[in-house]
Model the fold of this input.
Amino acid sequence: MLDYDAEAEAYDATRGGAPRAEAAAAAVLGLLPPHASTLLDLGCGTGIVTTRLTRPGLRVVGADASHGMASMALRRGVPVALADATRLPVRSGSLDAVSAVWLLHLLRGPGLVPAVIAEAARVLRPGGVFVTTVDKDSAHDVGSDIDAVFAAHLTPTPSDASGEVEALAVRAGLRPADEARFTGHGQGRSPRGAARALLAGQYASRVIPRGITAAELAARLELLPDQDVPRPEPTYRLRGFVRSRGGV
Done:
């Protein structure tokens, strides 16, 4: 797993930068109800998406467990709390919306995803909306030769599988609502870039080398043609869930 404190300064440049962030923010905003006036962005990271979650009358705050990431968000002007997403310093039923972009797929510990979804439900008002990316890692499988190299080494049980997230949301008192898709600009990897990312731990939630080392798997990527030609970009999926009027 990445050290997010150490990675904060270089994080955005390796993950599509502003174009990807703008696409993500536009998709999130499209799933918020017109009346929403408060939004908490969970796992806000450097704040690159959070700063773009803007529209008249909407107040946005961020939360992240990494001091380095939260510091970057603050520098971008995001009001941010250093907080664990399973124990938010927020009153129950006080928010109109909660977003979690590229967060659930990272939560590999037992019980973490259910706890985060339940906490999002707790802080939402009745009729409030929880918006989250799902199936993040599988979105990167675009049928390329890089994906063929990774195929035997993919995580068998992703923590943000859409069906599982929906079941957990329903259990927490959230009903499925709309969804959206957006392009992961700058995320079409070249073989050389994929090899570097693998060795840097950037595929930790998606790829677990089996029977070989990460270095050996990277060496297989380095045998592919067109080493510096990016393969197609992924399309990410957002799901929206509405807090039931009857409570959790």
Summary: The mean pLDDT is 91.
